[in-house]
Amino acid sequence: MSETLLMVFLKAARPGEVKTRLARDIGPEAACWAYSSMVRHLWRHLEGLAPVELRYAPDDAEAEIRPWMRPGWACRPQGPGDLGQRLERAFEEAFSRGARRVVAIGTDCPEVTRRDVESAWAALERHDLVTGPATDGGYWLIGLSQNRPELFHGIDWSTDRVHAQTLRTAEAGGLTCHRLRMLADVDTLQDWKGFLHLTAAMGMAQAGAAAHGRAASPSL
Question: Cis omega (within 30 of 0) on the bond before 15?
Answer without folding.
Answer: no
